[in-house]
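Q: Hi! New to this. If I give you a protein sequence and the SMILES for fe (ii) ion, can you show me the bound structure?
A: Yes, paste them in.
Q: Okay, here:
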Amino acid sequence: MDKEASLGRPTILVVDDDHHVLESILLRLSDHGYQVVTADSAAEALDRLDDRDITIVLTDIRMPDMDGIELAMRIHERDPDLPVLIMTAFVDTDVVVGALKSGAFDFIYKPLNHELLVHAIDKAAAFCAMKRIEKNYRLDLEAEVRKKTEELNDLNREIIRRLTVVAEYRDTDTGLHNWRIGRFSAIIANGLGLPSDFVETLFLASTLHDIGKVAVPDSILLKPGALTPEEFTIIKSHSAIGAKMLEGSAHAVIRLAESIALNHHERWNGSGYPNGLSGAAIPIEGRIVMLADQYDALRSQRPYKKPFSHEETCRIILEGDGRTLPIHFDPQVLETFRQMESEFAIAFAALLDQ
Ligand SMILES: [Fe+2]
Ligand SMILES: [Fe+2]
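A: Thanks. Here is the predicted structure of the protein with fe (ii) ion bound:
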């Protein structure tokens, strides 16, 4: 916003090649509390607009270098809201209508009636004040909407975060495994060059990948020893159960989460579950989270295994160890992991269970 206007003292730029006219308008408007800047040509007027904060322009219709209507149009190219009043000695209705249509704010007839002049300027000043209020109101409103949107996004993220804590409560009660999966998935998706809004959605959605585990009994989920084939079948049901819990949403994050819950144990070579999908039939989000989940499982302590170091984990994923094999992974996802593995180590260290 311009300085003068914000101080409540509108500055009027008066343009006329007749110095007597300039003088008399300057006196009259100054008397009424306006600041006045004068110019005796259109070129000078445009210069003034560059280096002063002008609230209103009052110009003669006949200038040696440009007519007042063209000057008004030039001014409006820079600032469409700046009121330009035109002074004319001729009452030619066509000229007046044409000028108003091309954006002139008002007409003032010469010889000048000073009361009418001041009235017209007051009217233009009131218009400017209204415009300013409207603009501030709009800015406030936009800021408020931005703030509310941010709050809502925060709330959404927090709800998802707490939901992941629920999902993992009996395991580690921190939900950190799920957040690491979010980070790892985002690292891979970025490395694959996927669009940034997808990466952001994937980051949140992937944290819900194991939500179906809430339906697996403690006796199986927390069992320290080896699982029977029946127990393993029950554990495996967490993919389909998670997808069922998330199905039917209209929201992108939840829809992606549904797909991830269902597909994050599928393997590229078709040996995964629940549907034994292979290759590109597995949605990309499933292929990404599957590798992220593998990395985290290998790095983590389990009742039946010690945690592996980052280096050992990379070797197992990239070269295989008999149980985990490179053919389980989408080759492009695997290649991206090879390039980004150092970022996995950093993210894992930053989100470590205490
Ligand atoms: Fe899982
Ligand atoms: Fe998991």
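A: The longest helix spans residues 114-168. Let me know if you'd like me to explain how to read the tokens.
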